[in-house]
Amino acid sequence: MTVVFLAFLHVLPLLLTTNGFHPTTTITKTTKAIHARKVIIERGIITSNDKQRRFPFLFSTAAAVESSEETTASTIEAPSIPLSWDDLTNKLEKEDDDTKTSLVTLYRDTNGWCPFCERIWLLLRAKGIPYDEQLVPLQNKPDWYKALVPTTLVPAILIHEDNNNSDDTEKKNERRIVWESLDIMKALDESFPSTPRMVLDDNEEYNDAVEMNDRLTKAGFQYIYASAGPNNNITLTEEDLEERKQNFMNAINELDVSLGKVERKDDDDSFFRLGSQFTGIDAIMIPTLERWRYQLPLTRNIDILEDRPHLKHWFEAMESYGPYRNRVAGDAYSWTATNSMFLRYFGGGEDKPEVQDAIQRTDTIANQLTQSFSNMDDKAFGLSSDTTAAIVMEAATKLITNHEAILKDCTSDENETKSQKDITRASSDTNIDIALRYAASILMDLSSDENITTATAISTVITNNIEDELMISIDKGNSENVSRAMRTIAARTCTPRDMSAPAAIIFRGVLSIIADKLDGIN
Ligand SMILES: N[C@@H](CCC(=O)N[C@@H](CS)C(=O)NCC(=O)O)C(=O)O
Question: Using a 6 Å cutoff on CB, does residue 111 contact ligand 1?
């Protein structure tokens, strides 16, 4: 409530001083609010109904107060522009109708970086099995997890007891724990026979593709980690390294050629490893290839897509595949921004000049990528009209349910900062909270606007409508710090850890547009 009222206090002085309206002692909180809204409209800050239609939720509290002015004036709280976290949370709860009972618990790493977890995460979604998640911090694995899983590694799954007594062909599941990604993949097929089978190990093409992937992974690891990590092999000569690189390139070429044959065989538009159907081999392949695609240009100056049109086409198919794209996929920015951390851990020694160079190059490129956050590009993640609302809602939900942690993170001091130290944090300031509530309100509004079906439309609507409403909410003198906070949060948002890649584009986009506008105020 304090926050709500503070927000209102920030709004009011600006309106009063510029419009010659002076509150008297008799004016109630409610009539102040209604008056404030009228003044906003009269001043031309909100000139058209269109703006209110665009962001009805942002103004819904003021409208509610206005309509009940005569009867309940003394009982209604002053509205804030934008809404309070409590109001936003209530609104979210009304929208939340996810009632599916989970049949499986997935144990995966907190950061969403474990490639073996990614396989299972993707398969659960591809098979449409309702699941819940338990995140396991790998640096500090909890005792309960070590007691539950003999290897103590992630991923693992718990198959819940299935109480379905119908004559369904679905095998009656016993409550059991399964670990090791390849075993989990098989267990999911066995326990949920009515879902698409994914491990086609009686199919020659599938087995060949798995073997080819094993060769590729081995060649890749022998080259990429040849001079890094605990297996640091200092006896490797330049020639040895070059040979390993060639083996790796040959293995990627082999994959590209093989994909080309599949492509010619099938004229279907979707194009997975074995043809038009997504199968287990796609889930096995994508986690490693995704990392290589984004990290090797930074660390080894290798672009795995260059001159490999079929591999490129396979990535495109994966990126348009909902179960992958809408939650599991990482994005170029996240892989770039986290790459310096990977280099510090696995790069072979932070003191080596080539590792230092790679870290610096990585940070520079990550920073360049942040410059384009406010241009939300539809093609970047293939938003479609039927998924846009859900994706915008995901971004809103993440912001609303995590706002305290987000606020703390973007204003953390140097000693608390554990990662992305090159990104400047903001100073603590209530205006940051206002701007975040503002962003959340906009996202909630956009998620229910049926006319908005593309990221470009979202970008245009926000850019064209945001400025005036923002100016009445934020203390002008603090705009620089608030802008820094918005950019810090956007740059700290990592997929798939914090939200899906499509939601992150919207989330980072809204924050960056707000930051651009705030920078324009000065
Ligand atoms: N062969 C296992 C490998 C799993 C694995 O290595 N998981 C890593 C994360 S990527 C892990 O749990 N590391 C924690 C540790 O080593 O303690 C599988 O396929 O599931």
Answer: no
211-360: CATH topology: Glutathione S-transferase Yfyf (Class Pi); Chain A, domain 2 (1.20.1050)
Identify the CA nearest to 467 among candidates 438, 505, 504, 503.
438
Q: Is the CB of 288 under 6 A from ligand 1?
A: no
Say if ligand 1 is within 6 A of residue 138 CB: yes
pLDDT, tens digit, 9 for 90 and up, residues 206-245: 999 999 999 999 999 999 887 654 445 556 788 888 999 9
Same topology, domains 211-360 and 374-521? Answer is no
Report the nearest atom of ligand 1 relative to the CA of 182.
Answer: 19
Does the CB atom of residue 181 touch ligand 1 within 6 A?
A: yes
CATH of 374-521, one of 1.10.3470, 1.10.490, 1.10.3710, 3.30.2010: 1.10.490
Distance CA 423, CA 405 (A): 17
pLDDT for residue 230: 47
Q: Is 217 in the pocket of ligand 1 (CB under 6 A)?
A: no
- 180 Cβ closer than 6 Å to some ligand 1 atom: yes
Name residues of the chain where pLDDT drops below 70.
1-81, 95-99, 162-172, 227-235, 266-270, 378-386, 467-472, 521-522
| Beta carbons of 441 and 57 less than 8 angstroms apart | yes
The closest residue, in CA terms, to atom 19 on ligand 1 is: 181
Domain limits of the chain?
Answer: 2-81, 104-191, 211-360, 374-521
* Spacing, Cα 155 to ligand 1 middle (Å): 7
- Report CA-CA distances (Å) from 497 to 27, 356, 375, 384: 48, 26, 22, 23
User: CATH fold of 104-191, please?
Assistant: Glutaredoxin (3.40.30)
**Burial of 205 per CB tally in 10 Å (0-12, 13-18, 19+):** middle
Residue showing tokens 């190059």? 361
